[in-house]
Write a sequence for this structure.
């Protein structure tokens, strides 16, 4: 697969991953190399990665953080900053983030702020990180249960996608990443959506091409609007309600925590229903979206008491302005509309629609 040039970096795939990484290290000669992993990637991905890393005489330090969204916090950042300082990281050091979306988001933020910015490289190991989190330069951490409230947009030197790492993932993590791929089809490419919802016509060998196509879609959007002033906002489809649902389930002991993609899948169905009321999305397309998503994602149970709390959490969404919640909705499959305002009564209707499925 050909490498994909982003605004300031390059995404390399599979056979090119380690040759490009080692060539970069030889060319740039960083003072030290730091590899950030979580407890899972330390055990399942780090040995393969290190066996292919030709750092030569350059000192390499591995830093391990706990796995999971609830550790995507400033406290963990402080620990990583302190470890880098203790091991003598300077402005010519290189940070390599080997992990899923939590590691690439947090590691990118750490690198972008340590000594006002050092170079970093993302090596995504989850499907979610490969198709979404590691590409586009969005870095950051959560503020309590509020998703991605602190961060900067700053691209790394490169993204290295080695799809063999997907073999280390449990099934639920693969499914979680698939939600972002579905989103890319819904907002930008109806043909891609159709392909993803008819995977029975494909086999496992097609996965690399589907990942590649998903990165292409995201890169087209991000290249046109790197700082999210306009078009890039459409990447938030399903996320206004999805993030609120994810945060609510994360903070509620009575609820089973949802993976990011599981929450976004719910958000996409809810926001597709809203699209029929606000943007004239046709009912047959809503049916197609709901059926396509529920092919892969199980339904989640909601109680009436949940709705007010979820709606309240939406006020923290990053797309909001002047106190108004802004949604990305669909005019049709493959065509999104940004900055849509939705009254709360329609959101309650959307939850009733979801319950009826």
């Amino acid at each position: 697969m050909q490498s994909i040039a982003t605004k300031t970096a390059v995404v390399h795939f599979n056979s090119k991953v380690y040759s490009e990484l080692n060539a970069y290290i030889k060319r740039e000669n960083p003072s030290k190399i730091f590899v950030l992993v979580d407890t899972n990637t330390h055990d399942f991905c780090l040995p393969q990665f290190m066996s292919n890393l030709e750092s030569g005489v350059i000192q390499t330090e591995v830093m391990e953080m706990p796995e999971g969204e609830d550790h995507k916090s400033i406290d963990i950042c402080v620990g990583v900053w302190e470890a880098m300082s203790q091991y003598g990281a300077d402005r010519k050091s290189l940070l390599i983030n080997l992990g899923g979306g939590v590691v690439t988001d947090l590691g990118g933020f750490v690198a972008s702020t340590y000594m006002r910015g050092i170079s970093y490289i993302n090596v995504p190991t989850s499907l979610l990180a490969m198709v979404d989190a590691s590409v586009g330069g969005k870095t950051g951490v959560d503020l309590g249960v509020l998703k991605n409230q602190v961060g900067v947009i700053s691209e790394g030197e490169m993204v290295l996608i080695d799809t063999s790492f997907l073999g280390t993932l449990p099934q639920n993590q693969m499914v979680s990443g698939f939600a972002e791929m579905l989103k890319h089809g819904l907002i930008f490419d109806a043909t891609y959506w159709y392909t993803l919802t008819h995977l029975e016509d494909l086999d496992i060998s097609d996965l690399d091409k589907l990942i590649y196509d998903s990165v292409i879609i995201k890169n087209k959007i991000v290249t046109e609007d790197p700082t999210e002033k306009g078009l890039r906002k459409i990447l938030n489809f399903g996320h206004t309600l999805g993030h609120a649902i994810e945060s609510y389930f994360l903070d509620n002991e009575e609820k089973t925590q949802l993976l990011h993609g599981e929450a976004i899948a719910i958000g996409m169905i809810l926001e597709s229903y809203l699209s029929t009321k606000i943007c004239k999305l046709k009912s047959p397309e809503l049916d197609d979206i709901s059926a396509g998503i529920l092919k892969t994602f199980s339904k989640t149970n909601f109680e009436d008491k949940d709705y007010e709390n979820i709606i309240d959490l939406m006020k923290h969404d990053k797309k909001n302005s002047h106190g108004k919640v802004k949604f990305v909705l669909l005019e049709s499959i493959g065509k999104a509309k940004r900055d849509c305002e939705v009254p709360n009564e329609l959101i309650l209707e959307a939850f009733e629609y979801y319950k009826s499925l």
Remarks:
- The longest helix spans residues 260-278.
